[in-house]
Amino acid sequence: MIERVREHAGSVIFARVAGTEGSQRRARIHGTPGPRRFSPGDPIWRVHGDASMFVGGIRALLLQSLHPLAMAGVDQHSGFRGDPWGRLQRTSGFIAETTFATVEHADRAIGAVRRIHERVAGTTDDGRPYAASDPHLLRWVHVAEIDSFLRAHDRYSARPLTPDERDRYVAQAAVTARLLGATDVPEDVAGLAAVVAAYRPELESTPAAREAARFMLLRPPVPLALRAPYGLLAAAAVGLLPRWARGPLRLPWLPVTEATAVRAGGTAITRGIGWAMAPPARST
Q1: N or C: which end of the chain has fewer CB within 10 A?
Q2: What are the pLDDT digits (tens) for 244-273?
Q3: Which residues form the ER-bound oxygenase mpaB/mpaB'/Rubber oxygenase catalytic domain (predicted)?
């Protein structure tokens, strides 16, 4: 009975994240023979295969929204409001392809995203031009993601990385960023922190960023039955944001609550997701 419950919960979660073709994609990604950039023993496999990615993904979107040029591209060209699950499925699929798939399939996915980026350009409401292929913007999107994934893994993974593994994770994640067109990508944790800090003068509170935060945190497009689990993930994600990112997004700073109730809730929900999505036990 417990195994049936686990399998059902895991299939529901996987369908939401991966979409209707998720099972076929997973079989292709993991089952296709051929050389791969990374191996199961690498830190990037551990981080990107961990349930803490659910928390890190929400934090990354909130942090990324603070760059007005990056947010304008999402607001004007992305269907995240009309089809948020589709966007999540495409993003999770890209991370899976570039982490676990063969080099051939990973490069194919990277090429497809680069072609999309070449078509995404415009101007912000105040007249500033932007282009999704801009190496500077690509680097911001990358460091916001990797900083978020790593912090979520540090906080909520059952097996956090060692300091050396954390540096290796940043270096491994930089490979895909460079192939996408980003430049001057950090290679270790210290470099990652320095690059994030260097972007702070460019970050702003814009109506689009605040609306995106409200959409993700207050009006999430999830079924009623999933509102409570999603709320735990969202609270954990906000709890990992630095204080300087809260004000522009109109998010509270509650250090005591975040260190106790929010952390306990985040631990419970990520462990629950990890249990639900774990491979079934093999009979002997």
Answers
A1: C
A2: 999 999 998 877 777 788 888 888 878 777
A3: 45-267
Q: Residue 7: phi, psi to the nearest 5? A: -65, -40
CA 149/CA 60 separation, integer angstroms: 8
Per-residue CA distances from 140 to 66, 196, 198, 283, 284 (Å): 10, 8, 10, 46, 48
Give me 162's structure tokens: 């060692």
C-alpha dihedral, 33 to 181 to 143 to 66, nearest 10°: -130
pLDDT digits (tens, 9 = 90+) for 100-131: 999 999 999 999 999 999 999 999 988 999 99
- The residue among 239, 240, 246 whose CA lies nearest residue 213 is 246
Which sequence spans correspond to the domains of the chain? 2-277
Report the predicted TM-score, pTM, of the whole model to 2 decimal places. 0.87
